[in-house]
Amino acid sequence: MGRGKIAIRRIDNSTSRQVTFSKRRSGLLKKAKELAILCDAQVQVIIFSSTNKLYEFSSSSLTSVIERYNQYKDENNQVMNPTSAIKLWQMEASVLKQRLQNLHEVHRQLMGEELCGLGFEDLQKLEKQLEISLKGIHMKKEEILTNEIQELSTKGSLIHQQNIELYKKIYEARAYAATSDENIGFAPCALSVIKTHSLTNLQLSQQENERTSVHH
User: d(Cα 7, Cα 28) in Å, to the nearest integer?
Assistant: First the structure.
């Protein structure tokens, strides 16, 4: 005798329900694996039990399959329902337009314009916001000035060091020139002394010769 048909409805007995879940889960995962191997298909099965336990099978990377599914779903929605996409972009444009209008309004209020519709509390908030903005501007200004002062100080120190090096070179050049001049001035004097000494020796030699001749 063949098995009778089982009514497809929730099994009331928890034990029977758990046994049926275990058997059919194993069969489903087995069939998914066979389908992936026989047909070279990407198959992914995700099962959550009534006790919130996860069972899964994926013929390839789970992340890649999910990304592919989401991409296909998005492309399919755009092709099948272009009206929804147009409405979505229209809503996005409307939101951006409203934000732009709000920014223009805030800008005009910060410039002191269109303040008639503001109450006392709104004006206080605007004043506080301006004070915060002004404080930030002062801090940025001081930071720029401090950086410029430090840069100028560094450049001044560098120029001062370069001037010291130039003064040293000039002093050394002048000292060398003065030494050269002294050596040049000493040479003629030395020659004059040598010449005078030679003439004196020559005269003494002649006198000695004359005395020797007279004596003989």
Answer: 19
Instruction: Tell the residue number behind the tokens 């099994």, with chain if given.
Output: 11
Tell me the three state secondary structure of residue 57: strand
Give me the residue label for tokens 């950086």.
147
Q: Residue 84, CB half-sphere, CA atoms under 13 Å: how many?
A: 8
Residue 3 backbone phi and psi in degrees, to 5:
-75, 140
Q: How many CB atoms lie within 10 A of CB 118?
A: 13
Q: Of 109, 130, 107, which Cα lies nearest the Cα of 119?
A: 109
| Whether pLDDT at 67 is above 80 | yes
3-class secondary-structure state, position 180: helix
pLDDT tens digits, one per residue of 200-212: 555 656 655 565 5
* Cα–Cα nearest to 29, from 51, 46, 42, 13: 46
- Reduced 3-state DSSP string for 28-54: HHHHHHHHHHHHCCCCEEEEECCCCCE
How far is C-alpha 182 from the geometric centre of its chain's CA atoms?
A: 65
Q: How wide is the angle at C-alpha 114 spanned by C-alphas 110 and 120, nearest 5°?
A: 80
pLDDT in tens, 102-134: 888 878 777 777 777 777 887 888 888 888 888
